[in-house]
Amino acid sequence: MSPPDRVAGEVLLDGGVDALLELGLGDCIEGIDAVPVMGQMFHSRDGDNVKLGITHNPYTGEPLKGRGFHNGRFVNKLRNCAKAEPNVTIIEATATDFVTEKSSSSDREVVTDGVFSNFRRKLAILAGQDVSETKEDTTAASSACRPQFTSVMISVTVTMIPEHMDEYLHVYYDEPHVMTMYRISPTECRVFFNLNESPSAFTARTGFTLLDHCLKELDALTCVPEGNKAVIRETLKNQTLRVNQTLYMPPLPIVVPGVIALGDAHNIRSPYTSSGMTVALWDVVHLRNILAEHLNAADKVSGSVKSVLKELHKRRHNLASTLNIGAQLMYALY
Question: Which of 28, 142, 253, 321 could form a cystine bridge with 77, CB 3.0-4.6 A?
Answer without folding.
Answer: 28
